[in-house]
Amino acid sequence: MNPIHVALDTPDVDRAEALGRMVRGHVGGLKLGLEFFMAHGAAGVRRIAALGLPIFLDVKLHDIPNTVAGALRALAPLELGLVNVHAGGGAAMLAAARAACPATTKLIAVTVLTSLDDDDLGAMGVGDGAAAQVTRLAALARAEGLDGVVCSPHEVAGLKAGWADGAFVVPGVRPAGADVGDQKRVMTPRAALEAGASVLVIGRPITGAVDPAAAAAAIAESLGLGL
Ligand SMILES: O=C(O)c1cc(=O)[nH]c(=O)n1[C@@H]1O[C@H](COP(=O)(O)O)[C@@H](O)[C@H]1O
């Protein structure tokens, strides 16, 4: 299965649809996030889903258990491929999310955002670094029955060693030489896949390219995927 999910981070539904059409022959899924969902909601998701690829709705829910459960029930009619919540919402929130999320949608817990490094965590009172915090949050998510986690490519191998059937959704993916932007814990697509990623979330290296289809095709080729 093609692990590439393209992050269509735009508030312009026509642009998102056009990007989806351009890349769909080279990728395994499309990710819609807050920028898109705030502007277009469920109707926008349905329009992009009509392109025929699985949809990862990246809403990173983080609230009290009752609110997160209600949000997931409201999303159920969209028949999403994946949806995410923040593991930092705690055990009761994760349990409520699990109970509310359809079994056909993979429920994924965000651990430590890939835009954060050890210094950022230190400033928040987490003194032992990103990898240790990811390990703790992943254990919480697993204990509550979630399907997997979002983490950086650097943590995947360690997590996978103890959670063989977990889904490891990995942003912070950059082809060699690509602009890192606001990401701090990054790796190339091939290295991330070899580390054990199940899904590679890639946005700007594809959507910001002059030719998004060619950029997606080149990444797929770097992964050894036939076109
Ligand atoms: O949950 C996510 O998808 C996510 C988690 C995370 O820790 N870091 C992260 O970058 N993301 C998302 O992954 C995408 C990465 O986009 P690019 O940095 O443009 O490749 C964005 O849509 C982010 O919202």
TrEMBL record:
<feature type="binding site">
    <location>
        <position position="183"/>
    </location>
    <ligand>
        <name>substrate</name>
    </ligand>
</feature>
<feature type="binding site">
    <location>
        <position position="114"/>
    </location>
    <ligand>
        <name>substrate</name>
    </ligand>
</feature>
<comment type="pathway">
    <text>Pyrimidine metabolism; UMP biosynthesis via de novo pathway; UMP from orotate: step 2/2.</text>
</comment>
<feature type="binding site">
    <location>
        <begin position="58"/>
        <end position="67"/>
    </location>
    <ligand>
        <name>substrate</name>
    </ligand>
</feature>
<keyword id="KW-0210">Decarboxylase</keyword>
<dbReference type="InterPro" id="IPR001754">
    <property type="entry name" value="OMPdeCOase_dom"/>
</dbReference>
<feature type="domain" description="Orotidine 5'-phosphate decarboxylase">
    <location>
        <begin position="3"/>
        <end position="219"/>
    </location>
</feature>
<dbReference type="InterPro" id="IPR018089">
    <property type="entry name" value="OMPdecase_AS"/>
</dbReference>
<dbReference type="Pfam" id="PF00215">
    <property type="entry name" value="OMPdecase"/>
</dbReference>
<feature type="binding site">
    <location>
        <position position="204"/>
    </location>
    <ligand>
        <name>substrate</name>
    </ligand>
</feature>
<keyword id="KW-0456">Lyase</keyword>
<feature type="active site" description="Proton donor">
    <location>
        <position position="60"/>
    </location>
</feature>
<feature type="active site" description="For OMPdecase activity">
    <location>
        <position position="63"/>
    </location>
</feature>
<protein>
    <recommendedName>
        <fullName>Orotidine 5'-phosphate decarboxylase</fullName>
        <ecNumber>4.1.1.23</ecNumber>
    </recommendedName>
</protein>
<dbReference type="InterPro" id="IPR014732">
    <property type="entry name" value="OMPdecase"/>
</dbReference>
<dbReference type="GO" id="GO:0004590">
    <property type="term" value="F:orotidine-5'-phosphate decarboxylase activity"/>
</dbReference>
<dbReference type="GO" id="GO:0044205">
    <property type="term" value="P:'de novo' UMP biosynthetic process"/>
</dbReference>
<comment type="similarity">
    <text>Belongs to the OMP decarboxylase family. Type 1 subfamily.</text>
</comment>
<keyword id="KW-0665">Pyrimidine biosynthesis</keyword>
<dbReference type="GO" id="GO:0006207">
    <property type="term" value="P:'de novo' pyrimidine nucleobase biosynthetic process"/>
</dbReference>
<dbReference type="InterPro" id="IPR047596">
    <property type="entry name" value="OMPdecase_bac"/>
</dbReference>
<feature type="binding site">
    <location>
        <position position="9"/>
    </location>
    <ligand>
        <name>substrate</name>
    </ligand>
</feature>
<dbReference type="InterPro" id="IPR013785">
    <property type="entry name" value="Aldolase_TIM"/>
</dbReference>
<feature type="binding site">
    <location>
        <position position="174"/>
    </location>
    <ligand>
        <name>substrate</name>
    </ligand>
</feature>
<dbReference type="GO" id="GO:0005829">
    <property type="term" value="C:cytosol"/>
</dbReference>
<feature type="active site" description="For OMPdecase activity">
    <location>
        <position position="58"/>
    </location>
</feature>
<dbReference type="InterPro" id="IPR011060">
    <property type="entry name" value="RibuloseP-bd_barrel"/>
</dbReference>
<feature type="binding site">
    <location>
        <position position="31"/>
    </location>
    <ligand>
        <name>substrate</name>
    </ligand>
</feature>
<comment type="subunit">
    <text>Homodimer.</text>
</comment>
<comment type="function">
    <text>Catalyzes the decarboxylation of orotidine 5'-monophosphate (OMP) to uridine 5'-monophosphate (UMP).</text>
</comment>
<feature type="active site" description="For OMPdecase activity">
    <location>
        <position position="60"/>
    </location>
</feature>
<feature type="binding site">
    <location>
        <position position="203"/>
    </location>
    <ligand>
        <name>substrate</name>
    </ligand>
</feature>
